[in-house]
Amino acid sequence: MSNSQINGYEIECSGELLDASGTWAAYLALFLPSSNQMHMNNIFPRQRVLVGFSYPNKIAAEDAAYKVALEIIDSPVSKS
């Protein structure tokens, strides 16, 4: 799992092995700070993204999930 932060968002990207095919799926979760410094608000619960796609390795799956995170963060809806 790779974690990073951008524009106040905490991004958690992970790849999970798909047993049947030996390929990897991309998973993503997004968080924003809350009023409690010990807590983050989960604004995008961990879920598989790009469901129609699989990846040859964990790193490729995490990279794909990160690209989705950037699209979500840059979308007009996330800025309102």
Q: List how many beta strands DSSP finds.
A: 4
**In the CATH scheme, what's the topology name?**
Double Stranded RNA Binding Domain
- Could you tell me the mean pLDDT? 92
Strand percent estimate: over 45%
Named at the architecture level, the CATH assignment is 2-Layer Sandwich
Number of domains: 1
How far apart are the termini?
Answer: 29 Å
Instruction: State the major sheet.
Output: 4 strands, antiparallel
Q: Which secondary-structure class do the elements indicate?
A: alpha+beta
Order of helices and strands: EEEEH
* Helix content bin: 10-25%
CATH class: Alpha Beta
Shape: elongated
Trace the largest sheet across and list its strands: 1-2-3-4
Q: Rg from C-alpha positions? A: 13 Å
Uncertain segments are none
The helix tally amounts to: 1
